[in-house]
Structures are given as structure tokens and as C-alpha cells.
Amino acid sequence: MVTIIAAIGLNNALGKNNDLIWHLPSDLKRFKKTTTGFPIIMGRKTFESIGKPLPNRTNVIVTRNPSYTKDGCEVVTSLKEAIDIVSDQEKSFIIGGAQIYQQAIEENLVDELDITLVQEEFEADVFFPEFDKLDWELISRQDFEKDEKNPHDYSFLKFKKVS
In the chain, where are the structural domains located? Predict the structure, then answer.
């Protein structure tokens, strides 16, 4: 089972200047709880924005540079190769960025989308790819209002690929 996990704005905003646009502690907590113990796959820029391997997860970096290395990470030159090396795991997560998300959706490499929808539009330079809603079934939705720790209304959405 390969799942894309992402937080996006209403306009599909993902980030700006290789960083997140918002700070939602409840989303970060959910991300950690959901992905801990499972492999995570990311592009090089996403890894560099995080700055270090995330603990208690196999970190797989996809880059076009065959000589790129990072301690504590597996490095591969294609998304397909990344998925292949974690295929023995019950579940794995693609955590970004936009190019990796787009390729995964276009090449039909994912089974689920786990989306945090931040209920505002944001100025961004990177966006989550459009996807055909007919190919995906919404299987769960939780809505939350902003509070003292989370400055935006948000929703947790889970989609399953329609066979």
C-alpha cells in the first residue's frame, strides 16, 4: 500500500521558497503518528527542506543525481525504484514534493491520498497536482476549526483509489 500524504491549501498550495506556508501543530502530530514505523519517500528538495532523516522511518530520497548521498537515507534515481525497495513493507508514504506527487499520480503508483486540507488559499510557488476526482473515493473526513495552537480551519481527508 503506497499512500501520498500532503497538506495543501484550498488552491492546492504546498509550499513557498522550499518551505511550508503554515504551521499546524495538529497536522505535524498526525503526520508523525501516521508515518512512524513506515518508509517515507521524498524528493531531494523535500529532504533538504526537512534537513535530516526523520526518525523511526526508512527515509528514501529520489534524485536525478546518481552521486548524491545522505547518511541515514536510501538514495535512488527514480520513484519506481524507491517504491520497489520498500515494496516488502505493509505501507509506505510519499511525502513530497510536487514533482514526486505528480509523477506518482500520473503513473498510477499510489493506492491512497491522505490529505490535510487547510481551509484557506495561500500564495505559493509549489502546488499539489490536480487529480481526477472520479478516480478517487473519499473514505473519511474530519473537520476542525482553528484554535489557539492551529491558526487555520483544516480537514483531514482520506481518498482510496477506485479500481
Answer: 2-40+84-161
